[in-house]
Structures are given as structure tokens and as C-alpha cells.
Amino acid sequence: MTRPEFALDVEAISAIPAVPVILSMVKHLTGMRFAAIARVTERHWVACAVDDSINFGLKPGGELVLETTICHEIRQHQQPVVFGHASADPQFATHHTPLTYGLESYISIPIVLPDDRFFGTLCAIDSVPADLSDPAIVKTLTLFAQLIAMSLDTQGHLESARAELTDANEHGRLREQFMAVLGHDLRTPLSAIRMSADLLATKTEDKRSLGLVSAIRQSSIRMGALIENVLDFARGRMGGGIPVKRHITDDLSDVLKATVDEIRASHPQASLIESIHLGGNVYCDPLRISQLLSNLLGNAVTHGSPTSPIHLHIWQECDQVIISVMNRGTPISPRLLPLLFEPFTRSEAGGRGEGLGLGLYIASQIATAHDGILTVSSSAELGTCFIARFPAVPPA
Asked: Residue ranges of the Histidine kinase domain (predicted)?
């Protein structure tokens, strides 16, 4: 019975497809009738694989007393040991190992892993002499031992990869639970808060109370936007992009005008100058394009100059829809421009740093999902300008 602490080693060797062929080749090259791969530690000698034609009696998992083996010495000096006729060899004629096991021929090659850890030996024995004088025998067995070591190392990396994959699957399950919490357990009570605020607004005329109700409503709207952004971020990272449902629509102008009105209502202090000219049908997901515009306008309100208007232009050109949002304010450093469309990095660009830094990332992902692109330029003379472009017609 294999000791539990060596079960993985025996399993690892048995999992190497080349091992039976290697042991057969060792017997063929040396002319000996027993070949094995042994795991050798400070206290144990354990057979991991065996090719036995002399009924030596060892099976995978079987042990020899470490001190009775030459592998105990090989573990210390990590050099091959070879003799072809023990009884005629001055060094091994009186050695305890050939005397104990009745051996005449013996060869053992150390197996050293790529990180210099000693694993064990590749060995062959027989009770009759063998001609081991050809240097090619030791060289070939050394290559076999290196092949075994590399295979064990590869298996170790594969096991680590499997463990990481298991962890990743577990993390994926936790992310799905996290999305479920966001999607239901948070949005549902938040909707109740907003409806309660609307109801309270109809039941009181006290200015102070109305001010508190308005603050509750605005906070719940902002919390809802944050939750939706995090949900979209999670969906995008888990599913390879933010999902969109594109179709032919003839009312995109109305949808985007309604988005502008919502921004005005939620940010009465902001000045918006818009020009929206879309003619005919557009192939898109109107709700996602509305979200893209809302994120760009929200970003302009948050990070632009409060004393300068935000300029919005939306038009069609060469079968493309173009959305341009420009605001004045402190220009963004050229070093930070490439980071703007990465998640959680917006606050690094200065400004007041509100939100999670997901708005521009999500806007960029929506543009990409529409086979389009979102770009940015920023200078003291021209201001900061975000331009989104995407095809207005379905792909051919």
C-alpha cells in the first residue's frame, strides 16, 4: 500500500505517457531485466513505476529500506552510479547493496527537477552481469531522466493552472452572486426610496421638507446610476463586452433629446447648448446610446468649468452617427488621456473625482459594441472634447 505522502508522486509518474516506453528502452539499452523510477527522500525509497522481468517483487508504491540502497548515496552527491559486474568490481564487491539484493549489474541516474530539487532516480538492476561500458548508455539514460524531470515540472504547472481555473470559476460564481445582489437586492429598495420621495413631495408644502425630499431623490438617482454602472462593468468583464440589442429605429433623436432633458433636470446648475440633427433610420440600441450620451454629459458636468456651457452636437455624416460633447475647464494631461477609458481611473485626471470612474469606460464599451469608437482630445484653447462615432446602418 502506497504511503499517503507519496501517493501524488506515484500518480504523477504514472500520468506521464512516456514512462512505460522509457523503462522498456532502459532494459533494452542496458540488457538488464528490471527498470524502475524511484522517489527518494531523506527517509524513504518508493517505487513510482516498475518494469520487472526478474520477479524482484516491487510494485508501484512499494518500498525498500533507504539505507540498503545506493540511491541513498546518489541523493547526496547527485551523480550516476554504474557497475556491470559487482563481484569483480573492487568498489562494489563488498558493498552492502549488491550483497543484500544479489545484484551483479546496476545503473542509477539522478532525476533533478528544473528548480534543482532532487526527486529520485531512474535505475536498472539485474542478478547477472551486463556490459555497461558504452558511454552512450549513461548519456541516453541521463536524457531519459531529464525528460522525466521536465514532465513532472510541466505537470506541476498544469496542476497550478487547474487550481487557478478552479479559483477563477469560484470567483465567477461569486461575481454572478454579486451581480444578482446589485440587480435585485439593491435596485428594489432603491426604487422604493425614490417612489417614497415622490409621494412625500406631493404630501408637503414645507420648503425645508421639500428640500430634504429633493436631496433624497437626487441621491437615489445618483445611487441608481452607480449601481447600473457597476452592473454594466461586471457584465462587460464577464461576458467580453457590454451587451447591446441593435435594431433599426427612427426615433433616436427623441430618445437623445429626452436624455438631455434628464441631465438638465438633475443638474439645473449646468448650462447645455445642444444641436441634434439625425435624419432617417439608425441601426443601434437606443437605450445604450442614450446611456453613452448620459455618461458623456454627466462627465462634462462633473469635470467641466461650472461657468462655461457644455456644447453637444449630434449629426449623421457618411453613414455614421457622430456625438460630440465639449466642455471647458482644466485641460487633461496628455499622459492621462490614454487612461480615461480604463475603469476606475477617471479620478486620476483631476477634477472633483465624483463617482467610481466607470462612466467613460462604459461609454467606450457601448461605442465598441456598436462597431464604433470613442475618442478624446483636450487643450486649453479648444477645451475637452469627446467624440463617439458608430455606423448608422447595419453591416453589409
From this structure: 181-394
The model's pTM is 0.50
Q: Are residues 183 and 286 in the same domain?
A: no
What length is written for the chain? 396
In CATH, what number is assigned to the domain containing residue 17? Answer: 3.30.450.40
Q: Which of 89, 82, 98 is nearest to 141 (CA)?
A: 82
Of 197, 59, 209, 33, nearest in space to 126 by CA: 33
Cell of 280: 432617417
Q: What angle do CA 70, 71, 76 make, to 5 degrees?
A: 105
Residues 266 and 284 in one domain: yes
Block residue for cell numbers 552510479: 81
Tens digits of residue pLDDT in 142-162 = 999 999 999 998 888 888 888
Residue the block writes with cell 404630501: 203
- What are the tens digits of pLDDT across the range 318-327? 899 999 999 9
Other residues' Cβ atoms within 10 Å of the Cβ of residue 336: 14
* Residue whose entry in the numeric block shows the C-alpha cell 439593491: 186
Domain that holds residue 107: 4-160
Kindly state the cell numbers that stand for 220.
437615489
Identify the DSSP state of 186: I
pLDDT digits (tens, 9 = 90+) for 350-372: 444 445 567 898 899 999 999 99
Asked whether residue 396 is domain-assigned, the answer is no
Q: Is residue 53 part of a domain?
A: yes
pLDDT tens track for 56-102: 989 999 999 999 999 989 999 999 999 999 999 999 999 999 999 99
